[in-house]
Amino acid sequence: GYNFGELRSSRKMIAWGGTTPDDKQNGLGSLNRIWFHDLSAGPESNTGQYDIDNADLDGDDALDYRMPPIWEYGNKKGYRPFTDLSGDLSKVMRYVAINLLFTTSPLYRVQITPPEQPERLQVNINMFEGDAASSGLSFVKAGLMNDNLNALQPLNKFTTDLRSRAIGDAQGPFRCYSEQPGNAPCDVPGLGVIPSGLALFGYGLVNRAPLSSGTADYVLPVLAFNLDSTYQAPFLGLADDDYLTGTQSFVYAVASTAEKAAGYGFTTTLIHEVGHHLGMSHPHDGYDFETDTDYGPSGDTFYAWAGDESNSMMSYIDLNWDFSQFDRDNMNRYLVAGYVNNSNQILGKFAATNLFNAPIEAFVSIFKADAYASVALQAYQAMEYSYAASFAKKPTPRWLEPRNSPRSTSSRSCGIRRSRNPPLPAPRVRS
């Protein structure tokens, strides 16, 4: 495909890290948790490091705080005085390395359908064809998607199902969503008139059954749009929620003629967006626990763009298509918390209702589960997160409650992925 790193100067970097032992391009061979950030390697475009004169790079009338090349420290005549190297590096450490790479907060509920926690997950890619000159499915590499999703959650099994559909009655809701203001009225067949900002979600909701049919424990419906130049692409991809509880719902992906000409297909966009659906955040925006603040790469934390300079499919630099070691670590930590908390909740419910009538086998299972959970927490403290997740999953007492039929999503969002074509200092339109 298109080599963004080789062909675009906006992808030249001063930081990198998070490469996994088994990375197909440059695997390290052993587990390492390393990220370096070198202010002497610039100036570079991604974090706006090259511009030391203009305060506002993204056009929002606010000073965009960024770190200049190392040789500019001591210069008091730039858009701000560059006089505190230690303070700037501490900002990068806390607000990029720690918050956005090493210990990120989940975007969505990682357990997906608690108390049931799916083991077999199917990604249904419903490709709505709106370009007579190409087939959208030719821009999807299902095997690559499966490989990367299974590497992120190796305790579960991901499969991908490809389905081609005429754009048909999805054309109206899509055009309304992409061409009208968010509160403009939009007529969705089967649902009636709703705000245009809900048009794609509404269409998915009405058509949930055919979009999410499958036999896996959990089916994730993707609405992908392969379009010609008569359509406007509002984004490359978006991982939506349900507009009520914040639970993940549908994933959308769009590639019109312009996006395809710029080097974008569907595979990496969908790996990225399904990553959001599973709980992964961007490495350039996230949450600071101490101040209870969500933040992104603008204003006082513009330098958060540095987080994208890591070996993660969740970044915007398009230099790789897999999840980083930090992504894997974070996912395993999320799963440990999810499995252990879920087991404790089910056990509490069981103890309150069935304790005196329970067979001896139930108590044996509980003691065994407690031993597994103890091993998991010890491994967690030792930073053996994959090992911890495997033991945390063992005690999940599925025998306490019956498993129901396969689950699918039913239902705003946070994980929007947009093209990074405009070079700085032009405004970047991204989520």
Question: Can you walk through the features of this model?
Answer:
- This protein has 431 residues and is α/β, with parallel strands linked by helices.
- It folds into three domains: 4-107 and 287-322, no CATH class; 120-281 and 409-417, Collagenase (Catalytic Domain) (3-Layer(aba) Sandwich), CATH 3.40.390; 328-404.
- Helices cover 30% and strands 16% of the residues.
- It is built from eleven helices and 13 strands.
- Strands 3, 4, 7, 8, 9, 12 and 13 form a seven-stranded mixed sheet that branches.
- Strand 8 and strand 9 (248-255) form a beta hairpin.
- The longest helix is centred in the last third of the chain and has 30 residues, at 325-354.
- It starts with a helix and ends in a 14-residue tail after the last strand.
